[in-house]
Amino acid sequence: MILVDMSELMRPTQRKLHAAWQELQDRQVLATPSVARELAPLAVDVAWMGGPSDAENRLRAAGSSLPKRRQSELRLQAWWGRMWADGNSPYRIVALTPEQEELAERIRTVIDPACFPNTDPEDIPGLGDAAIVSESMALGAKLLLTSDLRSIDHIEVNRWTVDHGAEWGIRAEEILHDADLTFLNWTRTPAGLERWIQAGLLACWPSPDNAPAGEVLDSTEDGIRRMTHGDGGKLRLAGQRLLNGLRKHPDPDGLVERTRGLLPSATVESDRRHPTYPHRPSRAWLAERRPGGSLVPR
Fold first, then answer.
1. Backbone angles phi, psi at 164, to 5 degrees
2. Which residues contact 86 (CB under 8 A, 6 or more apart)?
3. 44, 85, 140 from 166: Cα distances, Å
4. Are 141 and 3 in contact (CB under 8 A)?
5. pLDDT in tens, 108-161
6. How far is CA 198 from the centre of its chain?
């Protein structure tokens, strides 16, 4: 099982790349309850309780009387609630059994404090990052994340899991994996790279569905380029690989049309329901078409 950390879901393009990659394999983006709770604390319960989320109810009750910033926060949480409640959406919360929850709690009391270097050891059992890590361990899953090691030390967590996992009934293997490097590994083959480029097309697909191929390619180049050059550089290496693959593709228009044949897409449709859609500002750069069909920044 592959899980994602909140760091992979907060930024639009990165989130949609994860969603499109999984959709192309008939899978969903999976997260633990603690990840969901950090993303949308007023919506996480819909995965089990059903019905409108608390965020949605508060919006209906207070409406425009709320400060605009609070309205935006609640709309975002309500969107997550609708995604988690919809079994056909790209996103799903993985529920833990009572036994797994108990195991995760126990792990947080014994894990080496070096795994969370900027947290007082006494505070680790209540730490959100520790809950995400321990839930992933209890589920026997791998966790993809992007981290600067200040809050979670990947090396120490993986070392502790390998050295002590068997003592706690969990897999004695590395659990934390850098999302950027993982995507590079997944896309080393021609088939993997082709799928990765298609994920980029879906993640950046413009409105409407029948947008010309050139517009789809421009939108994808723009969206992925901004992601790789933005603050923090999320999925920077894998994003650059996607751009390189797209620019060198022998038939980019044909790839767009093959990807268009996959529409309607859960990734595309869910994004169009997002409260901040469209995310992309006016393009600060353009691409010109070479005779061979590849793209190059102008």
1. -125, -5
2. none
3. 31, 35, 12
4. yes
5. 999 999 999 999 999 999 999 999 999 999 999 999 998 766 789 999 999 999
6. 16
